[in-house]
Design a protein that fits this description.
This protein is of the alpha/beta class. The protein has three domains: 144 residues, Response regulator (Rossmann fold); 153 residues, 3-Layer(aba) Sandwich (Rossmann fold); 128 residues, Helicase, Ruva Protein, domain 3 (Orthogonal Bundle). It has 19 helices and 18 strands. The strands form six sheets. Strands 4-3-5-8-9 form a five-stranded parallel beta sheet, with helices on both faces. It has a five-stranded parallel beta sheet with strand order 11-12-15-10-16.
């Protein structure tokens, strides 16, 4: 931990998961600040104008923007307002000349983090960036480890991951806050579709109303109509009482229909009517019941192919697919593996009261080399098992035995070989994904450039 000599605020030194965007049109200053951030091993990118800044923000992986107030195609004030509207969760520090301090103070009152007055000492600049990144990190850990996790889980929390793909999804969710449109979530099993559905609901105007979850694949075909729409007393044999269905239970809120591809054609017709007419009839009932419910559906099936084989109705598909969110598998966003694993360890140790400090470097390298066909769900299970079984201060590679690691090979004589092979695979993959750029590969692996160079030399990996 670094301590700020000005206000004694502890600074989290593990800031490699966060990215800074510099917006400065003075070439010398921009390059100097960017180089110094890289020297401090803080991921950073730098641009000279607002248009370029917006393009970088659209990538979805920016956590902190440091911008000059005067830019060639606008002002830092305009950029701040744009960020506040379209990129919630991204913090802003302003660089201002002496005569513009009043503007900077006004923006800080409006939500900007801080400001720097030119000329400033570069060490003061680094100190501010580290302090604010640390506070962002602490805030996000508080959010994701809160007992009221779902209610505090907001866009920008980083709960979904640090990859640009997941940050883009968080930004999209933020823009859906005032919308009531139906949403279709697609992606492999375990990628986090239900987590995204919860985020959409909790960030909407319906957040105070219930969110009812329905696993369509788990409902009996003979009872699914009654489960969804309810039934009247005496509607069928065994209907001894009136039943309120899931749609009515979700009144004023959201209904989440997971595995929507599994519902039968006759239920698809009834769901289409619900979406078109916004009303239902209980089984055995005659009076329509008006609904005020948002529908979020999810599937791991390619519905377009199901439409081609007449297994799924095209008209229902287009009613559900007003907003489409496709969640990529974990293997396509490997930078999320260690990031999420650390969050899971922190969450689980807090809940269990465990004294485990975290993951060892060997454990992280082994996780980085795994394929995780079960995606985030599998990763969380692996971490939960490791936390439960680990009896050391740090979770080691041997605590992460899974089907991908033959337990017969995890012995005192072959553990080092397993770790070295995992390191070699992880390094080669990181280099390939980052066009052999050492600094980017090091950031992906969560180690320093010097450490990466040493490991490449040890394993005879060419640049």
């Amino acid at each position: 931990m670094i301590v700020n000599s000005l206000d004694k605020t502890p600074i989290n030194n593990d800031l490699k998961a966060y990215c800074v965007l510099l917006v400065e049109d003075d070439d010398i200053m921009r390059l100097s600040l960017e180089d110094r951030l890289h020297l401090e091993e803080i991921p950073a990118r730098a641009v000279s104008d607002m248009a370029s800044a917006r393009r970088e923000l659209e990538k979805g992986d920016i956590d902190l923007v440091v911008t000059d107030i005067r830019l060639p195609d606008g002002t830092g004030i305009e950029l701040f307002k744009d960020i506040s509207c379209h990129f919630p969760g991204v913090s802003v520090i302003l660089i201002t000349a002496y005569g513009e301090i009043a503007d900077a103070v006004t923006l800080v009152k409006a939500g900007a983090l801080d400001y720097l007055t030119k000329p400033f000492d570069i060490s003061n600049f680094i100190q501010k960036v580290e302090r604010h990144l640390s506070r962002i990190a602490d805030t996000r850990l508080t959010l994701v480890n809160s007992d009221a996790e779902e209610k505090q889980f907001k866009p920008g929390s980083g709960r979904l991951g640090k990859s640009s793909a997941m940050r883009r999804i968080e930004r999209l969710v933020a823009r859906l806050g005032g919308s009531d449109s139906s949403v279709l979530l697609t992606g492999e099993s375990g990628v986090g579709k239900e987590v995204v559905a919860s985020l959409i609901h909790n960030n909407s105007l319906r957040a105070k109303a219930p969110m009812i979850r329905v696993n369509c694949a788990a409902l009996s075909p003979s009872l699914i109509e009654s489960e969804l729409f309810g039934h009247e007393k005496g509607a069928f044999t065994g209907a001894m009482h009136q039943r309120i269905g899931r749609f009515e239970q979700a009144q004023g809120g959201t209904i989440f229909l997971d595995e929507i591809a599994e519902v039968s054609p006759d239920i698809q017709v009834k769901l289409l009517r619900v979406l078109q007419e916004r009303e239902i009839e209980r089984v055995g009932g005659v009076e329509p019941i008006t609904l005020d419910v948002r529908v979020i559906a999810a599937t791991q099936v390619n519905l377009k192919k199901s439409i081609e084989t007449s297994e799924f109705r095209s008209d229902l598909y287009w009613r559900l697919n007003v907003i489409h969110v496709d969640i990529p598998p974990l293997r396509e966003r490997r930078e999320d593996i260690i990031y999420l694993a650390r969050l899971f360890v922190s969450d689980l140790t807090k809940k269990s009261g465990s004294s485990i400090k975290g993951l060892s470097k060997e454990a992280e390298l082994l996780l980085q080399a795994m394929t995780f066909p079960g995606n985030v769900r599998e990763l969380k299970n692996v971490i939960e098992r490791a936390v439960a079984l680990c009896d050391a201060p740090w979770i080691g590679a041997i605590d992460l035995q899974t089907q991908e690691i033959d337990s017969r090979e995890i012995t005192t004589t072959t553990l080092r070989q397993s770790i070295e092979e995992a390191e070699r695979k992880a390094i080669n993959k990181a280099l390939a994904e980052n066009n052999r750029k050492i600094n980017l590969a090091a950031d992906t692996l969560g180690i320093s450039r010097k450490n990466l160079w040493e490991k490449m030399k040890r394993y005879e990996i060419e640049k």
